[in-house]
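Newbie here. two chains, one complex. Structure please?
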Amino acid sequence: MTLQPEPVSGPTSLGRRLLVLLLAPLAVLLIAGLLFDYISSIGPVRGAFDRSLGDAALVVAAYLRPGSLEKIPRELPPEVSATLRGTGDRALRLAVRDGAGRLLAGESNLPLPPAGFTARSTPNPAFADIRLAGEPARVAWYALALDSGPTTITVAESTRARDRPSREFLAVTMLVDILQLLAILLLVILGVRRGLKPLLALRDQLAARSASELESLDEHSVPAEVRTLVASLNALFARMRATAESQQKFVADAAHQMRTPLAGMQAQLELLERDPQAAPVRDRIHAVGEGLRRLAHTAHQLLTLARAESAATLERDFRAVDLRQLIEQTVTAQLDRALAKSIDLGADAEPATATGIDWLLREMLNNLTDNALNYTPSGGTVTLRCGTIAGAAFLEVEDNGPGIEATERPLITERFRRAAGAAGVGTGLGLAIVSDIARVHGARLSIDTGAGGRGTLARIEFPARKDRGA
Amino acid sequence: MRILIVEDDELVADALERGLAQAGFVVDHVGTAEQAEAALAADEFDLAVVDIGLPRTDGLSLVRRLRRSGSDVPVLIITARDALADRVDALDLGADDYMTKPFELPEVAARCRALIRRTRSATSAQLTIGAVALDLASRTVQLHGHALDVTRREWSVLECLALDTGRVVRKERLLRAIAGWDEELTPNAVEVYVSRLRAKLGDAVAIHTVRGLGYRLDDPAA
């Protein structure tokens, strides 16, 4: 058996689904109730009006005495009509006819009773809906056997009068029903909202965590229906953590396994180059040494990239990092290179603290400084800067070298890409590492022209630090 | 100056041995922590260069054991790992300096020399950097064997820089060294004394300005 996926129209929301599934049948049910109320209430109202119409016919019948037909007034006596009228506009129309249908008294335009209607017919009085002068009306016929022969009394009234009370009744019922409907809608909406609250809380909790946060969710605070889902998520998080950790370990081991032989070979070549016996081949040894240095550098850069990625998934390693100290370490580490190239390497460090992984930030600053030293000619200046603006720390490396073309700037953070006309050794990974590490820290990397339109200004802007309970 | 190299990788150990020997050190080499403990107990060494990744007992454990047993031989840790935690661990455990592989031999030699010098200055009053000799007890300087006339403040600056040869010394620290309790000096004063020292010492040692940070005195032999 295959499960057919339900057709999805637009984004499905559990809340909306519940509302639709609950509200649609509820609305139908309430409307049906309304109709039932109307229909069941209209019958008794009609009956009551018919009874009073029939009573009018009976009252008239009481006036009909043998031989007095000629004396029947065109209108009923005031006291009779008053009782009949009851309410103001129930104008009753009256006709009295003999067995042959001749009008004995009253109005001639009232309809004749059905054929064969006699005093023994049931029901008596009989009723019917008619139209009188173009208006809907109700008529009652009452047959009686007088000494003068069979006689029928016809009483009619406009239905407008009787429609009003039923309309009023209907209006009141409808109003109550609609209020009830609204109250139920409100209750359903509130209920669904409230019922989904733990689910929405879970959603917010998930939305608030960064992509690299892999801590487990609390399985006990969620509804039973999604507990399995949360448990699966937690299992997934745990697996990702384990993967990240084993990758970190693998990369660290790989680094270890590669660096030791590289260090040995590099140091041996250094010695060989100095050896007087090697004088005839010194240039070739030097070239091999340079190649080895490049290989070691690339291996280091690649391992850094790999570690940056797995470190990003282990956010709990994030700590407060003093950027001033970072700059001091970097300047100290790069000073010899700068002195050898006669570059004035300096610092301009204001108090600044970023949240991050210390060694990654050190790699980042080191790469930026490396680049600046590589691209700045002898006699140039490279300055490492840090500070805090509105609670957000920044790092800058500025040089007064040839700078980077504006069109090249968006491309240079790609892996293995080197700036046009780049000289010297370089893996083309430096800025890719910088941009990766910046991304891991939620920081923004921008590359601009230095002061006075000269050189390059690389700037890392960290997000404002939230105080982590410190 | 006698150095013990504790490194299990033959290629690296051989290069270190030769490189440091060429730099003027007397060098011995062992491949395990156990051998290192035995060697350090049997002989006097001025410095141990220890690799973290040793077989069985690793380098960090070796440093811990040495310090526990009361040995104060300076230790330069060399490692193929570059995680900060290792560095912090190493220094916390009592190692004196830390380098990552791959390394440049001249830098290893310079670090060794600086470590030995620092340890010796703690026990002896003599401090020699190239052609400059400082007598920490009498607060006098000799240049090429001749007494050099320096003021009290020039001496303080030179002493500070010389005790941390090869390292950047913060300007604030130099300022504290020359200013008495009740004296108000501007950072410019430090610049004045440094430039006077440069004039007096000539080419014998180099005092580099590290813009925004401080100064670094370099041993010309490094």
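Moderator note: Chain A is about 50% helix and 15% strand. The interface with chain B takes residues 252, 255-268, 270-271, 274, 293, 296, 328, 331-332, 335-336, 339, 344-349, 358-359, 362, 383-384 of chain A (CB under 8 Å). Thread marked as resolved.
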